[in-house]
From TrEMBL:
Species in which this protein is naturally found: Paenibacillus glycanilyticus
Domain of life: Bacteria
InterPro entries: Metal_Hydrolase, Pept_M19
Name the UniProt record assigns to this protein: Diguanylate cyclase
PROSITE patterns (alphabetical): RENAL_DIPEPTIDASE_2
Cited PANTHER family: DIPEPTIDASE (PTHR10443:SF12), MICROSOMAL DIPEPTIDASE (PTHR10443)
Organism ancestry: Bacteria, Bacillati, Bacillota, Bacilli, Bacillales
Length: 314
């Protein structure tokens, strides 16, 4: 049975932005977790590339546009990579055996509250957007903002514009209050691209059971992430620890709502044996020890592909 892999979050564009000598199409010896060769070798069918702007560069539209240019120049120039903007793009990509490249925005600081900028980014291919990183901005409070505020008036306008355009709203990194604001406002569904279960590890970036149930009720998706400090305590975090979060979300009724959100290239410590796309087979093997082939296939890519087929613009 074929086990294609879809990953809803990596930060390779951020590394390419701040380290211009790095090359997505280069050899595995470079400083990137996610490379073209590794994606091809791993059985990837879809990779979401986040536009994350480090705080020292954040606040204007320029580094966002530079990151998207890197996406076009380094990722989309690879012969087997294909930009995914619509349902038909995804169908064509899967039929052709290529690797879909989805573009997302992690933090909207640089949009400066301008919906015109959001519309332009949509035209450039952005199909998912998280309002914040960990701190506050013009749109919302992030999980590390001490006051724990929700969406601003401009943030509510942003969510409405995303719904209108067909941009998925990503609730990973939002404060809990902002999460519930989005859940109440979104006329369409939401995703948490890279978050785990707070019941298993009480980290601010993880989701409470009520949040997980809300995403499930909205027919959204939760990307189980490999960030070690979101998975388990201690220095030796294992693939089996990752599976505990799969088990937990599934136990809350989320079996059809689980996907993967590695956060490769956004971390400098790793789950043991899970350091780049070429090692995701270890997660597959662990899943197969306790789940059926069909369930494992859904977790690795099936749920994500079904979701995008239904929720991308036509």
């Amino acid at each position: 049975m074929n086990f294609p892999v879809a990953d809803f979050h990596c930060d390779v564009l951020s590394k390419l932005l701040v380290q211009p000598k790095l090359n997505f199409q280069g050899s595995e010896s470079n400083q990137l977790d996610v490379t073209y060769e590794r994606l091809k070798a791993s059985g990837a069918v879809l990779q979401t590339f986040a536009v994350y702007i480090p705080e020292k560069l954040n606040g204007s539209i320029e580094p966002i546009l530079e990151s998207i240019d890197l996406f076009y120049e380094q990722v989309l120039t690879c012969p087997d990579m294909m930009l995914i903007r619509t349902q038909s793009d995804l169908a064509e990509c899967l039929s052709a055996g290529k690797i879909g490249a989805l573009l997302s925005l992690e933090g909207v600081d640089g949009l400066q509250g301008r919906m015109s900028f959001l519309r332009l980014l949509y035209r450039l291919g952005v199909r998912a957007a998280g309002l914040t990183w960990n701190h506050a901005n013009w749109a919302a409070d992030g999980v590390m903002e001490p006051r724990g505020g929700g969406l601003t008036a401009q943030g509510k306008t942003f969510v409405a514009e995303c719904d209108k355009l067909g941009i998925l709203v990503d609730v990973s990194h939002l404060s809990e209050r902002a999460f519930w604001d989005v859940a109440d406002l979104a006329s369409k569904t939401i995703i948490a691209s890279h978050s785990n279960a707070k019941t298993l590890l009480n980290h601010p970036r993880n989701l409470t059971d009520d949040q997980i149930k809300a995403i499930i009720a909205l027919q959204g998706l939760i990307g189980i992430t490999y960030v070690p400090w979101f998975v388990a305590e201690g220095d030796q975090v294992t693939v089996d620890d990752v599976l505990r979060h799969v088990d937990h979300v599934g136990g809350l009724g989320g079996e059809q709502h689980i996907m993967l959100g590695s956060d490769f290239d956004g971390i400098d410590k790793y789950v043991n044996g899970l350091t780049h796309p070429g090692e995701v087979y270890r997660l597959r093997e662990a899943l197969l020890k306790r789940y059926s082939e069909e369930q494992t296939k859904r977790f690795l890519s099936g749920n994500a592909l079904t979701f995008l087929t239904a929720n991308l613009p036509e």
